[in-house]
Amino acid sequence: MFTDKSDIYIKAGNGGNGCVSFHREKYVAKGGPDGGDGGNGGSVVFVVDSGENTLIKFKYRHKFTAENGEDGKPGKFHGKNAPDLVIPVPPGTLLREKSTGKIIFDMGRDRTFVAARGGRGGWGNTRFATPTRQIPRFAKSGTQGAEREITLELKLLADVGLVGFPNVGKSTILSMCSLARPKIANYHFTTLSPMLGVVTPKHGKSFVMSDIPGLIEGASEGAGLGHEFLRHIDRCRLLIHVVDASGSEGRDPIEDIKLVNNELYRYSAEILERPQIICANKCDLIEDESVRERLRKYCEENGAELMFVTAASGEGIDALIERASEMVSALPPLTEYEPEVSSDEEKTLDRTVTVTKRGDTFVVEGEWIKRFISTLYLTDRESYAYFEKVLKNEGVYDALEKAGVKDGDTVSIYDVEFDYVV
Asked: In whole angstroms, how far apart are CA 47 and each of 111, 113, 124, 133?
């Protein structure tokens, strides 16, 4: 079964909590704090698996969660870092934000991407020992791992794409050019999913050819099967437009070319700017030889290259392979999509603080302060002293005074409330 789109949820592991502990040993007076740090949570990492060409394994599994870091231990033992959760995807998979559809990252060949970074482990109380604070009775909890909803969209990495109406011989051409063995039969929509094959010419470099399921009029609006797989043409550098030159099904080959090109244009105007080889197939069945001249004239007027083949017998296939290889080698590399949103790695924490007065309470909000509070155990005087020191150094008290706070007013910072004292 071929699947080329799926929505998933990923969650990186949380960092382990720091430990509050004091060294106790016979004959060792005032052993001091010895709480270890928590381990880092596992990140969610996407890697390219060249052996995959479908997203079928994401059809029934939509949630991926990395392990949490281990908590710190006494004796200055740090918690163990959690392993990363590695998710293999086929080459050419696009990672998109589910909510906006914007591209996060393009998984080309042999690429790795950290989509959600694991939380950092919290500090143990050993870290907070100073000459004036020799017995810190607090530690920091680990930070939360990143989480996000992602849409996986596969755009196959193929250098050459075979396009055309159903039953014109695309699958036969692919089977004659490569070791791929697509289903071949004399009826429409034999090919229900894109097929890939590696083509090795006698001269020049090998390239990847893709057989796109048959297009019909209205495919760009959902008719037939073509609309499901038009995205797989996006990366193709060269299009081989296959037509039935014999008109065996009562259609005119030139009209077929126009209709398919119109569907490609309606999907993406940029695709029609790419070079095309018009591959006139089934030449052994041509009864009216004037068709050849009409095709030549049409291709000359539209700047397309024309080649005549009979795929069933292999006539003209070698010449088609050699010409496609020449053209591909002279074309720019495969399309790579630039990220449209910042990745989790690139985001920097906003240090701004906003203060709003709601009734008799001054409410303090800010991205960094929310994360900071989540890492603290406010259970004793010393931890509160450390909390107040950070607020002062980061300018939170200055912001409160500018907002008009007075002695005795209530201040709320993410469920932590206290009376302001000048």
From this structure: 6, 7, 34, 46
Structural tokens at position 249: 């099904």
339, part of any domain: no
Q: Are 121 and 37 in contact (CB under 8 A)?
A: yes
CB 145 within 8 A of CB 117: yes
pLDDT of residue 139: 85
pLDDT per residue as tens digits for the range 140-180: 888 889 999 999 988 877 889 888 888 888 888 888 888 76
Q: In angstroms, rounded to a whole number, what is the distance separating the alpha carbons of residues 183 and 190?
A: 6
Per the structure, the complete domain to which residue 369 belongs is given by 354-419
| Phi and psi torsions of 413, nearest 5° | -130, 95
Tell me the pTM.
0.72
Residue 334, in any domain of the structure: no
Q: What is the DSSP string of 17-76?
A: PP---B--BTTB-S--B-PPPPPPPPPEEEEE-TT----GGGSS--EEEPPPPPPPBTTT
Report the domain count for the chain: 3
Low-confidence ranges of the chain (pLDDT < 70): 1-2, 180-193, 214-229, 342-350
Beta bridge partners of 417: 412
State the pLDDT at residue 345: 46
Eight-class DSSP state of 132? S
- Taking the C-alpha atoms of residue 281 and residue 278, their distance in angstroms, rounded to an integer, is 9
Q: Does residue 251 contact residue 214 with C-beta atoms inside 8 Å? A: no
Residue position matching structure tokens 């090795």:
200
